[in-house]
């Protein structure tokens, strides 16, 4: 890309890409934990947007407490997803598709289909993208740091390795004494938490939230980012550090496709195609005879 | 796995006569009608409202017939809203419209249907040949469809359909019922015929019941799955055309909300997401139940915006209820 359009590297290009990559990266980090156990969370982007709307509504009256409240609410939503999943044993894509519908309706009802502007205390979240370190917004650096923490968690801790075990072979993990149910709830809780962080980033960038505004279109880009980052949709193979590069790649799609002359209207075709190609290229087929 | 002595799987003729085979859904529908008639005696039980409900049910029924054919095999098609948008925009731009693009007359119908069938076949082919889960391929195709629709929409004015006769056709009812609903019934008859009387349809049940055995008995699973996805794509395309007629204009988001509605209708109708049982007729019952529910809720003063939320809850509850008996300590559910 830098070769095709040399001026891309000057003029704040990296800073803009980092800004756009941050919400995608955060949602994708949550998604990759869920993918790690072999499930998928189709609701987390909508949950993140709900956090964004909640923040827009509560930043004025609550100030610093507002982000904490938002994160608590969306983490609870993720945990509820996980609890329903483990106790009813329904497929995660069906459950989270239902949750997606509920979250979309909740966003519409809470905002009354209007744009909600942050009235006061914008400073509580604004620093995420106004403060820059080495030309990169501090929020991006925090997200990368969280990716490193998540990597260490998955790689070096007992519950982290338990998540991988559930993804590789759930029955074997259960028979060898892994707390499979608790691990699944943990994965969905983390998914909600990271989506909430993404929502806070969106409100920091936009200063306003609506059910169809900025951040309402993160689902496919974030799944694509996780898959481009080498996460296997079948579970058990996930490296959050690679997801950082996946998110940067996906954030480059709009800039890149515009630079090479693709109509901006056609962007979602590119997102969809990247998603399909990424999953086709990275899926491990050896352990699964029948794919549905 | 679904037992072979169960309902629906071995034929639709017997299915309508048993409790688990359709009577339960009919009872729910009647209960809803009674409840809403008592709540809104002035506005709910009227002929006008019946026409409204049937007209609203037409588009999800058409989508549902195609989608349930895919669900029968244990696959899923999440691309319906994208295909609806792409096919709807294609239809509008190929018909007489305010932008004065090309007008190819009635050929706009087969052109839009062919686009839908093509997108469906592409989804099916990528899924079946590259062995990628159908939900993720069709999720990508959802976006591809929306992108095609946005590309066709471009940056110009909204393209309105010029012919008032065509726009008015779906809601007219020369035969006593709205034309849109009658068109949907034709699609249902086609879907039922496919499922009950053709090798393709019977194989769909077999694939859903036990794919390994289906392959061993010589059923061309890969080819049939691709054909069924193409059929679903064509159904979504027809729904996109009907949605564009209802709007009187082209819009990329013509299918918005349709995915939750039809998936929920499929599952409460009695086609489990694992496949092997159910079919088009069951999905019609599911759509009628949900359309009556939404209509009654809106007449009762509930905010129309909660519709996708209600669909989501109904979907989850229906999936839980359908799978409740199969829960087991060591069952693997992803």
Any descriptors?
heterodimer, A: 292 residues, mainly alpha, two-stranded antiparallel ribbon, 12 helices, B: 334 residues, ABC transporter involved in vitamin B12 uptake, BtuC, 14 helices, disordered N terminus
Detailed description of the structure:
The complex is a heterodimer of chains A (292) and B (334). By secondary structure, chain A is mostly helical. In chain A, the strands form 2 sheets. Chain A has a two-stranded antiparallel sheet. Chain A has 12 helices and 4 strands, in the order ααααβαββααααβααα. In chain A, α5 packs across α9. In chain A, 70% of the residues lie in helices and 3% in strands. With 334 residues, chain B is mainly α. Chain B has a single domain, classed as ABC transporter involved in vitamin B12 uptake, BtuC (Orthogonal Bundle). Chain B has 14 helices and no strands. Chain B has helices at 12-15, 19-39, 47-72, 80-94, 108-130, 134-153, 164-168, 179-197, 199-209, 211-216, 221-247, 258-269, 280-299, 307-323. The radius of gyration of chain B is 20 Å and the shape is globular. Classes of the chains: A mainly alpha (292), B mainly alpha (334). At the A-B interface, α3, α4, α8 and α12 of A face α5, α6, α12 and α14 of B.
């Amino acid at each position: 890309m830098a070769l095709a359009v040399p001026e891309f590297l000057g003029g704040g290009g990296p800073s803009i890409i980092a800004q756009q990559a941050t919400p995608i990266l955060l949602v994708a980090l949550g998604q990759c934990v869920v993918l790690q156990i072999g499930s998928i969370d189709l609701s987390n982007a909508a949950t993140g947007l709900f956090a964004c709307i909640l923040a827009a509504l509560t930043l004025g009256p609550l100030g610093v407490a507002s982000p904490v409240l938002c994160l608590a609410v969306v983490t609870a939503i993720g945990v509820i997803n996980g609890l329903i999943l483990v106790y009813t044993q329904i497929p995660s894509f069906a459950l989270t598709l239902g949750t997606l519908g509920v979250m979309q309706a909740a966003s519409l009802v809470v905002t009354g289909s209007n744009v909600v502007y942050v009235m006061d205390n914008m400073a509580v979240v604004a620093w995420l993208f106004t403060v820059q370190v080495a030309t990169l917004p501090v929020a991006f650096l925090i997200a990368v740091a969280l990716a490193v923490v998540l990597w260490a968690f998955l790689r070096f801790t007992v519950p982290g390795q338990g998540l991988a075990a559930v993804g590789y072979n759930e029955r074997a993990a259960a028979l060898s004494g892994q707390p499979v149910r608790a691990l699944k709830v943990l994965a969905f809780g983390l998914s909600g938490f990271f989506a909430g962080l993404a929502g806070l980033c969106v409100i920091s960038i936009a200063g306003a939230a609506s059910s169809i505004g900025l951040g309402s279109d993160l689902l496919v880009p974030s799944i694509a980012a996780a898959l481009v980052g080498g996460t296997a949709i079948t579970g058990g193979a996930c490296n959050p550090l690679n997801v950082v590069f996946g998110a940067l790649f996906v954030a480059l799609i709009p800039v890149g496709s515009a630079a090479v002359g693709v109509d901006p209207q056609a962007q979602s075709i590119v997102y969809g195609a990247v998603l399909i190609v990424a999953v086709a290229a990275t899926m491990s087929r050896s352990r699964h005879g029948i794919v549905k | 796995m679904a037992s072979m002595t169960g309902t629906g799987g071995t034929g639709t003729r017997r299915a309508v006569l048993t409790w688990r085979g359709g009577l339960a859904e009919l009872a729910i529908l009647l209960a809803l009608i009674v409840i809403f008639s008592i709540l809104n005696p002035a506005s709910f039980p009227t002929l006008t409202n019946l026409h409204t409900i049937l007209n609203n049910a037409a588009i999800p029924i058409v989508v549902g017939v195609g989608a349930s054919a895919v669900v029968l095999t244990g696959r899923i098609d999440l691309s319906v809203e994208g295909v609806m948008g792409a096919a709807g925009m294609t239809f509008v731009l190929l018909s007489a419209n305010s932008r004065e693009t090309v007008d190819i007359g009635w050929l706009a119908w087969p052109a839009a249907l062919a686009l839908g069938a093509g997108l469906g076949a592409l989804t099916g082919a990528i899924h079946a040949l590259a062995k990628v889960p159908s939900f993720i391929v069709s999720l990508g195709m959802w976006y591809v469809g929306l992108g095609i629709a946005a590309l066709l929409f471009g940056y110009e004015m909204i393209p309105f359909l010029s012919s008032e006769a065509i726009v008015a056709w779906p809601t007219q009812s020369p035969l006593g019922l709205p034309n849109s609903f009658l068109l949907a019934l034709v699609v249902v008859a086609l879907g039922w015929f496919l499922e009950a009387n053709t090798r393709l349809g019977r194989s769909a049940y077999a694939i859903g019941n036990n794919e390994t055995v289906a392959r061993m008995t010589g059923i061309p699973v890969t080819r049939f799955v691709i054909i069924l996805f193409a059929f679903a794509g064509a159904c979504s395309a027809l729904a996109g055309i009907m949605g564009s007629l209802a709007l009187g204009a082209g819009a990329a988001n013509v299918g918005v909300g349709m995915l939750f509605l039809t998936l929920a209708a499929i599952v409460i109708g009695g086609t489990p997401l694992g496949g092997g049982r159910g079919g088009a007729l069951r999905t019609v019952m599911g759509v009628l139940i949900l359309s009556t529910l939404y209509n009654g809720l809106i007449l009762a003063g509930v905010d129309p915006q909660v519709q996708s939320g209600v669909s989501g809850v109904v979907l989850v509850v229906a999936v839980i209820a359908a799978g409740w008996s199969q829960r087991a300590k060591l069952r693997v559910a992803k």
